[in-house]
Give the backbone structure.
Amino acid sequence: GAVVSQHPSRVICKSGTSVKIECRSLDFQATTMFWYRQFPKQSLMLMATSNEGSKATYEQGVEKDKFLINHASLTLSTLTVTSAHPEDSSFYICSASHGGGSTDTQYFGPGTRLTVL
Amino acid sequence: GQQLNQSPQSMFIQEGEDVSMNCTSSSIFNTWLWYKQDPGEGPVLLIALYKAGELTSNGRLTAQFGITRKDSFLNISASIPSDVGIYFCAGQLGTGANNLFFGTGTRLTVIP
């Protein structure tokens, strides 16, 4: 159980275009989803936290107008990178949590590699 | 954000050897987690620790939550080639669905 999927697994786009990445919890309802970014040979850095039905909370230094997050249902969150530039090229990973209870384990998706030309 | 330092940064070991890595923080965490990440994949949870002093095993893996709540270690016994990957520690401040703060990672290479 507790499977999280991401789509697409990799995407290449031209500079200036927008890219949408989907994160789905396949067998549980995720009240909270997290989006991380990982540059090569570096650790995961949290970008934003989203709760179903409410606005995402962005970490300091992450532009909310550039990285649009929508958590419209308990099984789906989307991250849209708007007007992508080469410096946005990275590995984007989502995680999902049941929420509530004493052990809110985050289950990670397989990641999406974005390359902006 | 919180800073978690892992050591060593990388390790090259012979198959069959035991491995030890640790993670330290300047802040107290209420939950410590250890993840393994294969290239091009998301992290997979190995062990979760919820109580200071707790020692937990998962097969050949053993992890401990430091008494000060500012550190944790992970041991892998009798390493095998599929142990290759990057190991991350992560700290969580609360027992709710709080943010995870990831360590800098330890890259493990196992030589057959």
Observations:
- Chain B has no helices and eleven strands.
- Chain B has a mean pLDDT of 92.
- The radius of gyration of chain B is 13 Å.
- Residues 35 and 85 of chain B are 10 Å apart (CA to CA).
